[in-house]
Structures are given as structure tokens and as C-alpha cells.
Amino acid sequence: MIRSRLNSLLAIVLFLLAAPVLAQQQPSVSRDIDPAIARVIATTPAIDNHAHPMLSPPDDAADRNFDALPVDNMAPQTDPVAWRADWPAQHDAWLALYGFNGTPPLTPEQSKQLDDARARVKAREGARYSQYILDKSGIGIMLANRVSMGSGVQRPHFLWVPYDDALLFPLDNAALADTPDRAQFFPLEEKVFATYMKAAGLTKIPASLDEYIAKVVLPTLHRQKEDGAVAVKFELAYLRTLDIGNPTRAQAAEAYARFVVRGKVTAVEYKALQDYLFRIIAAECGKFGLAVHFHGMSGGGRYFSIAGVNPLNLEPLFNDPALKDTNFVMLHGGWPFVHEAGSLLQKPNVYLDISQQALSIPARTLSTWLREWLELYPEKVLFATDGYPFSASLGWEESTWLAARNAREALGLALTGMERDGEISPARAAELAHMVLHDNAVALYHLN
Q1: pLDDT cut 90: percent of the chain above it
Q2: DSSP string, 73-98
Q3: Are 327 and 444 in contact (CB under 8 A)?
């Protein structure tokens, strides 16, 4: 009885101390979540491991650097319910962020009213608008997965995670554009690659693989680190499968040389070069203290290879002793391969987050495998939203807010179930909540 009263008193103290945060983002009410756990979750400013924030106004109007491979022009797919215009939960985000009380799906007139409401908030917040979205979503720091940073999306509240897929594809990529989606993706990668070449002071690729690594690959990583990157991101699963082999330097160098001399290589030769370059980049990231992020779940577009994104493809990479000092993060928690992804947390240098799942998967469903991960490897699980500009009604703002709320509710359900089943104490539940929301990311990225 005394312990129960002490726990209740502690919960009240936490609630009062963190009331400003609670006011910004509170999970939807659920009788299935212990109130003390709910308060800790609601009042902990989160570190969002992965999202695509847009610049603050007025630069947001022309911002396309929120993704190296924007998915808004892909061949149509069957969208998850949470991406659709009639998803009721959008109302809650509009009301919280802009004071707009419309009900999905919006009529043309209501869409204009939403645009006007959002514009008023942007005008009021100005350069602070992107941080305003974080404040409303209960997020203290967001890892911004962007081609480049800019106005309003800067330290200390936004930490940079640039893209490095382009470094893996320095040759002619025409033969790789084997689906309508990849046909538009590879020109976008080549556009990013051109910026890396320009920064290196080059107009064509160097004559040898060693020169390419020395003059383009490593200097690009160095610049990214110097410009504040805490990790690098690979969208590789959109471009090919995740089965990253371990070719020799000689195999990679021969493929590179064949292209320089003949202007073409076979698919097998090019893959060997890509795999070798990936391992060079991953090893260098380990030296720099940069984590390596993977897109790790079923992706957008009707032509995405779901089988190719199975995280078990990565096990040989994770087992490589040469990469033991490199930390890898499977973004999006591997869905639909959630158990396979969780099993890989056994590897000392492997982590995962719940980005995108936090938006697309309902809290109770998400809580089932989130609980499984927390029961096994709690220090390896990271909060994240994957806030993204999906549409005019579901922008990065709404998706961030909704994913943050849903993730908190899923976490509350998972921890409450563990506590009520006698697996953890109330104190341990509070500790685990703080770990997922904050402490695990602090440790992984060496944040102060």
C-alpha cells in the first residue's frame, strides 16, 4: 500500500513538473493504459529518430529536399487507411495544430479553410514554424532525414541525417531503371550525385576506384560529419534488394575499371561495386561515430520489392567483424517482418525504430510487437514518427503529430501489459518509457 501511494505521488509530481509538455501532446485516452505510465509517456519530450521535416516559411513553398526520392509521383498503390483523405484522425491534428475543426474527407471549401488556417499559423510562427510543430507533438529533437538542412530546420532541435545512396551508383544506371518507379528514382539519385561531385571539384568520375573513394566518397562523408550529421541514410531498398554481399577490392576495382574503359558493366559486376562501396562507407561511419540508417519496411509504390526489404538479408552485414564498430538502425521496424527485425537486435550494433509504423499501424496492433521487442532488447528500440508531406491534408505536420500520439499510446499499452503481467515494476515501466522516448537515442548518438 505504501509503495502504491509513493508511485501515485511520484506520478502526480511528474505530471505537475511537466504540465507544459503534456498540454502539447497527450495520448488519446485509454482505460487500458496505466495512468502513471501514461503521464510519464506524455510528459517526456521525445527524440524522434526519423522524419522528413520541411523548411519553415517562406522556404517551405519550394522545398523538395525533404527526401532524395520523394514518393509523391510514383505509380499508384493501395494506400494504407492512415494515408487516405477520409481518415478521421486527421481532424485531431488539424484542431491541435491550426484550430481547424473540419471533418475528413474535406470538401473543396473546407480544404481552402484548412489552407487558410495553416497559413495563419505559419505567418504567426514564421521561422519558428518547424519547431512549433515539434512543440505541439511533444518532440524535443527530431533527426531530419533530408538532402540538406535550411531555414527553421536546424540545430539544436533538428539533427541532420543525409542520404548516401548516390555514392553507391557512380556508373551508368540506365539498366537499373527496370520499373516505372526506379525510372524516376535513378535520375534523382544522379542529381544528388552531381552535387557530391561538384563539392569534390570534379566533372567526371575519377579514373580508378581508389581515386573515386579518396576524392569523392570519403570527402563527402567528412563534409557531412563536419556539417553536423549524426547518421547517414540509405533508401537502398527502393533501388535494389538489401542483400549486400562482401566482394573483394579486386572485384570492385575491376568492375569500376571496365566501366571507365568500355562504358558498361554487367549487373553482377555493378552489384559487386555497390556492395564494396557500401562496406567502405559503413566502416568509415564507424570511425566517425555516424550511425547507418536503412529504409526497413514495405515501401511506397506498387513496384516496391517487399521480399527484397526482408531485414534478414542484412544479417551477413551485421555479422561482419570489420563493421563491429558501426551502429546500424533499421528504420520503420521491418514491417511486415517485425519478428525478423526484432531478432536482429541480438546483434550488439543493431537498433530499430517505429517510424512510419507509428502512423500507419493502429496503437493496439503496434503494441504487440513493440512489447515483444521491449521484453527482449529494450535498450535497442527508438521512438520515431517518419513525419512526411504525404498530401495537402496530411502534411509532415499532421503526420508527425498523429504518429507521435499513436506511438505514445502503443508504448503505453505495451508497458501496461508488461506491468500487469508481473514482468516489470511500475518504476521499471517508467524507466523503459523514458528509454524508448529519449535515453536510447541519447546513448546511440552520443547526445548531451
Answers
A1: 90
A2: TSPP----GGGSTT-TTHHHHHHHHH
A3: yes
